[in-house]
Amino acid sequence: MFGQRSVDPSPGTHYRSDRVSAVNGQYFFATREGTLEGPFFTRVDAEREIDSYIHRMRVGSSPYQRPSR
Questions:
Q1: If exposure means fewest CB atoms within 10 Å of the residue's CB, which of 13, 20, 30, 47 is most exposed?
Q2: Rounded to the nearest 5 degrees, what angle is found at the Cα of 46, between the Cα atoms of 45 and 50?
Q3: What are phi and psi of 47, to 5 degrees?
């Protein structure tokens, strides 16, 4: 897949792979930022947390974020 995100300095080739990995019976997911998040007890837990992580990253980068009380 060839593409460019808005924060990338130039276009590049990106290969899709499974984001969830199992290590010693625990599950982790990899991020575009190069971090490995986890451990989670099940693959379902890890996949659910991927959605939460993406949401947090999108909200955190919003210029109109409301301050928390």
A1: 13
A2: 115
A3: -65, -35
Residue 3 maps to a domain: no
pTM score, whole prediction: 0.62
Residue with tokens 């996949």: 47
Q: 6 φ, ψ to 5°?
A: -65, -25
pLDDT tens per residue across span 25-34: 999 999 988 8
Q: How far apart are CA 28 and CA 23, in angstroms?
A: 8
Domain that holds residue 21: 11-60
CB atoms within 10 A of CB 28: 17
Considering the domain boundaries, does residue 40 fall inside one? yes
